[in-house]
Design goal:
Strand content: under 5%
Largest sheet: none
Shape: globular
Order of helices and strands: HHHHHHHHHHH
Number of strands: 0
Helix content: over 70%
């Protein structure tokens, strides 16, 4: 745990940390704003909030590019273990916020339960997609982006129609539990994929887009 905390503090020395931190705060702020104004009925609010956990993965990956890490025994942990741990912890916290806020809204608007169930399940779906995306993005950037865009477009198509039409006959509480399962199962999938791809070279396309100054 002490090593994890120490490395978390060192993330500020990773490449473009301030820019990525700013993006983290912007996504989080926009997500919270959408959640409040839509009263939890817009899936985009939850999406923007949970996507912020992905930046924790990115912070560790960027730190792994430093000479200090390359010349030490920390490379494996920063490529496979710690990014997943950080992603799961922050995703759990952020998802809990979304689920808790919508539960409070639902207490005053029980008629919205079917919509809430659909949007929280879609949020769970995106959690899985984001885990898999981050696991592949730094190795196979183009493939990861294409798959993510297709999944996102399909989900947006669902939301563009009547969300309640896609709602399974389950309670909001059950839908929330499915979301928590997605948090941990997605983290497990991310860890397994990361372990399998550990020896694969990092995608130059990914790092030109995110850490261009390091590649050039």
């Amino acid at each position: 745990m002490k090593e994890y905390i120490k490395l978390l503090k060192l993330c500020k020395y990773g490449f473009r940390f301030k820019l990525n931190l700013a993006c983290f705060l912007i996504f989080l702020g926009v997500g919270i704003l959408i959640e409040i104004t839509s009263k939890g009925n817009n899936m985009l609010g939850g999406f923007y909030i949970v996507i912020c956990s992905m930046y924790m993965y990115q912070f560790f990956i960027s730190l792994s590019l430093t000479d200090f890490v390359q010349s030490s025994g920390l490379k494996y942990k920063l490529h496979v273990v710690l990014p997943v741990v950080a992603n799961v912890v922050f995703c759990f916290i952020l998802y809990s916020f979304v689920a808790g806020f919508r539960f409070l809204v639902l207490k005053n608007n029980p008629a919205d339960e079917s919509t809430m169930v659909t949007t929280i399940l879609l949020c769970a779906l995106f959690i899985i997609v984001l885990y898999i995306y981050t696991a592949f993005a730094y190795k196979y950037f183009i493939v990861a982006v294409v798959v993510f865009c297709i999944t996102f477009s399909v989900a947006m198509g669902v939301i563009g129609t009547d969300p309640s039409a896609y709602c399974p006959d389950i309670s909001y509480g059950c839908a929330v539990l499915i979301g928590y399962a997605a948090v941990f199962l997605g983290g497990l999938a991310e860890f397994i994929i990361g372990k399998l791809l550990y020896k694969k070279p990092l995608s130059e396309r990914a790092f030109r887009g995110i850490f261009k100054s390091q590649i050039e």
